[in-house]
Every structure is written in C-alpha cells, then in structure tokens.
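Students often ask why inverse folding is considered easier than folding. One informal answer: many sequences map to the same fold, so there is more than one right answer. In these notes we will look at a single instance of the problem. The structure comes first.
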C-alpha cells in the first residue's frame, strides 16, 4: 500500500545544523544552486580540513576548482584556453585585452616577443637569434614559421611507414627521436659548430624514426595540435590589425582528487 509521505521543509535552525556537518564541496554546490538556503549557509561556519589557494585555482578537501579564460568564438567552434601556462612558450597568462593580446605582451606595448638582441623566446617558444627590429617584421617571421609547420604537417599525412612491429617502449623512443629532429629543424642557431637547416621540408632520414602507422598517427596529432596553438597565439595580433574583438568567457571546472587505498 502506498503511503503519502509528509514533505515539510527544514526549519531555519535544523537547516543550519545539517549544513554544519555537510561536506564543504556539497555545501558549496547546494548554495550556488539553491538561493533560498544562502542566508542559513552564511550563518554557519564552513569546516575545511585542507584549503589550497593557487594561481587560477582553489582546492578544498581534495576537490580543485579552476577558473580560466577561454576564447569561445574560434573558427573550429572549440573553446580555446588562453589563461594559465602557455604550452608553446611556457609564459603565464592571467588576462587578455580586447583583442586577446596576452597580458605579458600587452605591458610591452603589444610588441611581438623574441627576435631581439636578448636571449628571449619567440611566441612559439623557440630561441631565434635573428634580430628583427620592427613589430611587423617579427610577425612576418612567425607567419613564415607557421607556414613551414603546415608544410611539414602535409608531409606527415602522406608519409608511408615501413610498418615494422615495435613494442610500446620502442614506439615511445621513436617518437621522442622524431620530436628532437623536429625541434632542431624549427630552431635557428648562430653557433657555427651546429649544422643549420635552411630547408623547410623533412628529408627521408628525418622521417626514418616513424616506423609504424601508430607512430605516424601520433606525430600527425601532435603536429596538428601545435599548429592550432600557433594560430591561436598569432590570432590576437591579426585581430588588432583587423579591429576584431573576439568573445571571451571565464569557465569554472571542477576536478576531484582520486585517492588510492
């Protein structure tokens, strides 16, 4: 027989007692979604065992809340994270201007970094000793590097490997060897003892480490990701030239720490 259960809201004092012994992360979630309990929630001390405040994140009892800036109107429709540490050059970004120029660049009059008389990385994370005085000259150099990356990307897509059976360890070793070759081609050296590569294409020997389809696939995916990052790092300067103001949003993500017994 079905019985109707009496549904009565908690009294104010009862609600405060429940909140007092509630997991802090559950409590934060309820408070954000149920405005009616916020008065009681603010009146009860929040008990936290472990609190860590970091750059762009807060960690509460093993649960991390990250807040980052994303450009949400990218041409591929995939939001692109612009704040935090840039994977290409390792620079830390906290804010962007109306065109998307990163704050560490904006404070130097929005001039493209690198290619000066100092040992500074360029926008793509490479050390290029060629001194280029003008902003647009540096931008032109970066565009040429991006064009080279796209040309090499097409080479990778058409590469036919030997399909030798290799172990997981050998596969990783082959891929690391190939990444080392790619870095040596991309960077410019002035030391006469080092061989300087002036060609834009991979040679047959450059592609020798790619011995299986799996290794080729990984190289293609890595190159494609790098090209997208390079395009997005150049985009703010193109936006400024064309007076385009992209759309940015702050996204909050939650990640719970996995604890093993």
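Output (designed amino acids):
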């Amino acid at each position: 027989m079905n019985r109707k259960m009496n549904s009565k809201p908690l009294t104010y004092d009862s609600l405060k007692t429940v909140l007092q012994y509630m997991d802090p992360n559950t409590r934060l979630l309820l408070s954000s979604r149920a405005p009616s309990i916020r008065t009681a929630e603010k009146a009860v001390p929040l008990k936290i065992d472990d609190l860590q405040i970091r750059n762009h994140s807060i960690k509460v009892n093993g649960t991390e809340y990250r807040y980052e800036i994303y450009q949400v109107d990218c041409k591929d429709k995939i939001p692109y994270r612009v704040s935090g540490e840039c994977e290409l050059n390792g620079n830390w970004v906290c804010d962007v201007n109306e065109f998307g120029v990163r704050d560490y660049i904006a404070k130097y009059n929005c001039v493209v970094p690198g290619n000066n008389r100092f040992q500074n990385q360029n926008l793509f994370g490479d050390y290029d000793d060629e001194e280029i005085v003008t902003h647009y000259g540096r931008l032109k150099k970066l565009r040429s590097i991006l064009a080279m990356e796209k040309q090499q990307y097409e080479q990778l897509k058409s590469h036919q490997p030997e399909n030798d059976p290799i172990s997981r360890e050998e596969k990783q070793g082959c891929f690391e060897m190939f990444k080392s070759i790619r870095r040596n081609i991309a960077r410019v050296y002035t030391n006469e003892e080092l061989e300087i590569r002036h060609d834009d294409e991979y040679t047959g020997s450059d592609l020798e480490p790619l011995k299986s389809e799996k290794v080729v696939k990984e190289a293609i995916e890595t190159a494609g990701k790098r090209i997208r990052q390079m395009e997005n790092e150049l985009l703010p300067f193109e936006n400024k030239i064309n007076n385009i103001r992209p759309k940015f949003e702050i996204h909050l993500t939650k990640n719970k720490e996995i604890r093993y017994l």
